């Protein structure tokens, strides 16, 4: 979900029509607009978190002095079209920033418009690694880029000595670009994706079944699932049905799965049953008194579980509050003017000419990028390439009704059983994970591949001569015998036995 942050200056004297409107700095009210699907898995969490953040900002006069922060939320009801149009409606009403739509696909469209209108778009849900600040200067990701969790998965694959993985994903921006990043990161480790198993963006059970049958017939047993919250669990349901949640299989899910577990625990028993032994990632957020206080308070606010998206939603509102304050300190005014290009679009019923350019947009963007604060998610500060500093992930193994943390992944240091904070002072990379309970309740690390049922047949040439017959020779009936053949048959028997 993305949201839209907008500053609406509520001030009777200010004319909203006209070529340019201006107000004195430090208005009484600053409105934040946000656009997301209220009833979605993330929506239920971030709504509560954003409201809590606004309450806290307003209770703390040292942030915005006497200016009140107010949040306006629009429900996009799982509709891609709405998640593009709602932000545009905010832009029409003189918005200084947008916490953009939820999905990467919509974010991309809105980010194009926002760059033209100089209205920053903030998102902690559009994690598509190809949304680059070069292409979208006014797009700011306030959560971790998917590039890092793909690097973490590549490190896990490499750590266990596997070479090839199968990637299951939806054929949309989020899926394609995430999996492309996974391919790049695996290549750095001399590993690769042997089968890109794409599903339609809204797959049916039949689509998933057909795909998983093809997956089961492939050689690789390492399956990475980069799915959506909506249909991700269905993949495991079908996999269980097809007997693919059994010994020999390795399932690695990106952070969609940990988010579901965090938000909806306790999960129904059959769901829990379907995901036993799965490895999943979660964005690492350091333990702190602040986070502990907030977690306690959370249970008073809602019955929904607190996922990392809640923490990022809370921090994003604070980030904006600090940026708004900085913007006013620099003498910034909230004023908008007509964009000559857009004004040419006058006429028709769309009223696109109502979209105005935020005059202080560049300064405000700068203020956002300069924020450096400690929040619930740890340090919130942007690198020069506009990613958050210190990307890190928890590596989780789903066991019983919950999961066990088997280690951490930290940007430069890779995998470790030590928390990223503890690692800071050690230059040594300790590539290590605690032992995993894999599907089929085994702790023995899977080999990662089987002889495939649909793979290529091996063709072996043998010399047909009369010398060294004990090594290899062709009998008159065409049967090949000899020491080489015996070794080959024995090796194949061993391989088949360990597959079973
Ligand atoms: C607002 O802008 C108009 C011109 O566009 C100017 O005459 C007026 O003084 C400005 N008001 C303030 C408060 O800056
Ligand atoms: C903001 O408005 C005030 C007066 O309303 C003006 O003095 C100041 O120069 C303006 N600042 C900017 C950056 O335009
Ligand atoms: C808050 O605003 C008032 C005037 O509105 C000003 O006197 C005071 O210094 C400001 N406080 C801070 C902390 O900026
Ligand atoms: C997905 O399944 C539906 C029916 O359940 C079918 O009509 C559609 O063609 C399938 N799409 C793909 C890409 O297999
Ligand atoms: C955490 O809560 C305690 C007790 O309510 C309070 O004294 C403390 O200041 C809080 N700490 C932080 C960092 O919010
Ligand atoms: C939760 O609510 C109870 C009762 O309203 C209150 O006593 C308690 O202090 C609250 N806890 C937190 C962490 O806000
Ligand atoms: C790392 O070392 C610095 C300086 O030696 C120290 O101040 C800091 O507390 C250490 N950090 C951790 C997590 O031990």
Automatic annotation (TrEMBL):
Domain Receptor ligand binding region: 47-400
Entry annotated with the keyword Chloroplast: no
Membrane-protein topology: Multi-pass membrane protein
UniProt-listed Gene3D superfamilies: 3.40.50.2300
Gene Ontology MF term list: G protein-coupled receptor activity
Top-rank taxon, per record: Eukaryota
Localisation: Membrane
CDD domains: PBP1_GABAb_receptor_plant
UniProt KW keywords: Glycoprotein, Membrane, Receptor, Signal, Transmembrane, Transmembrane helix
A GO-annotated cellular component: membrane
InterPro entries associated with the record: ANF_lig-bd_rcpt (IPR001828), GABAb_receptor_plant_PBP1 (IPR044440), GPCR_3 (IPR000337), Ionotropic_Glu_rcpt (IPR015683), Peripla_BP_I (IPR028082)
Signal peptide: 1-18
Protein name as catalogued: mRNA, clone: RTFL01-25-I03
């Amino acid at each position: 979900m993305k949201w839209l942050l907008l500053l609406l200056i509520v001030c009777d004297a200010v004319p909203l029509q006209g070529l340019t409107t201006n107000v004195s700095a430090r208005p009484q009210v600053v409105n934040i607009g946000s656009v997301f699907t209220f009833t979605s898995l993330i929506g239920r969490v971030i709504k509560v978190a954003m409201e809590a953040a606004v309450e806290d900002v307003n209770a703390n006069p040292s942030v915005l002095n006497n200016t009140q922060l107010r949040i306006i939320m629009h429900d996009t009801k799982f509709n891609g079209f709405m998640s593009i149009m709602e932000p545009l409606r905010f832009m029409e009403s003189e918005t200084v920033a947008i916490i953009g739509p939820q999905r990467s696909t919509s974010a991309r469209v809105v980010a194009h418009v926002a760059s033209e209108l100089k209205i920053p778009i903030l998102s902690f849900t559009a994690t598509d690694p190809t949304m680059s600040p070069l292409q979208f200067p006014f797009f700011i990701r306030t959560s971790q880029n998917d590039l890092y969790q793909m690097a973490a998965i590549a490190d896990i694959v490499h750590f266990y000595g596997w070479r090839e993985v199968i990637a299951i994903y939806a054929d949309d921006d989020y899926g394609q670009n995430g999996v492309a990043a996974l391919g790049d990161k695996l290549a750095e480790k001399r590993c690769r994706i042997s089968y890109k198993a794409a599903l339609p963006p809204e797959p049916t059970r039949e689509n998933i079944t057909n795909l998983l049958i093809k997956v089961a017939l492939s050689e690789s047993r390492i399956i990475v699932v980069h799915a959506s919250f909506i249909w991700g669990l269905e993949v495991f349901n079908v996999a269980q049905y097809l007997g693919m949640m059994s010994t020999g299989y390795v399932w690695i899910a990106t952070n969609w799965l940990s988010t579901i577990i965090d938000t909806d625990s306790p999960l129904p028993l059959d769901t829990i049953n379907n995901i036993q032994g799965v490895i999943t990632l979660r964005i690492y957020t350091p333990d702190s008194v602040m986070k502990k206080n907030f977690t306690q308070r959370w249970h008073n606010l809602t019955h929904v579980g607190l996922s990392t998206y809640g923490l990022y939603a809370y921090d994003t509102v604070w980030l904006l509050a600090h940026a708004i304050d900085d913007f006013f300190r620099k003498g910034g005014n909230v004023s908008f003017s007509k964009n000559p290009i857009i004004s040419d679009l006058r006429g028709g019923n769309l009223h696109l000419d109502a979209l105005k350019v935020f005059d202080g947009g560049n300064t405000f963007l700068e203020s956002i990028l300069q924020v450096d604060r400690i929040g619930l998610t740890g340090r919130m500060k942007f690198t020069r390439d506009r990613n958050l500093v210190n990307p890190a992930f928890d590596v989780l193994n789903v066991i019983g009704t919950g999961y066990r943390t088997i280690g951490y992944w930290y940007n430069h240091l890779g995998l470790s059983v030590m928390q990223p904070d503890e690692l800071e002072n050690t230059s040594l990379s300790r590539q290590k994970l605690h032992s995993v309970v894999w599907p089929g309740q085994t702790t023995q690390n899977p080999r990662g591949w089987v002889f495939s049922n649909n793979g290529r047949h091996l063709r072996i040439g043998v010399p047909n001569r009369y010398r060294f017959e004990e090594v290899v020779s062709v009998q008159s009936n065409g049967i090949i015998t000899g020491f080489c053949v015996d070794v080959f048959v024995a090796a194949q028997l061993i391989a088949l036995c360990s597959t079973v």
